[in-house]
Design a protein that fits this description.
The chain is α+β, with helices and mostly antiparallel strands. The chain contains 7 helices and 5 strands. It has a 5-stranded mixed β-sheet, covered by helices on one side. Helix 3 crosses helix 4.
Amino acid sequence: MIDQYKDLPGGLLPLLHAIQKSIGHISDSAIADIALGLNLSRAEVHGVISFYHDFKTKPIGNHLVQICRAEACQSMGSRELEDHAKTSLGIGYGETTPDGFISLEPVYCLGNCASSPSVRINDDVHARVDSNRFDALVAGLEGSY
């Protein structure tokens, strides 16, 4: 993939997206190869990866659950929802369940403020999520590896 993007001006971002789409994350060994192939330092590549929160440096679960932490969602109960999700899943933010099924992450605004609190599961945004609705949404993922 590096050869495909190395002569493209600004090719780093499209390359990182392509790698993540193909493999699911960007490993440390890939960072060294990318830096060498694009004539960048590893620090430059790592800086871009760490700046954009959508890039992952380790594998994530089959399902990504993100809970909004923006002010509107916090005012409508997202902190309590966070606590429930962490307890219910047995993991904290940035972690994946031992079976690799769900990864949990914070997100800072899903653009659904009028329907707070909001949760994104994979690519779907869910509004007005409380602990009962969260449990139902997660239960709906069962068997959908």
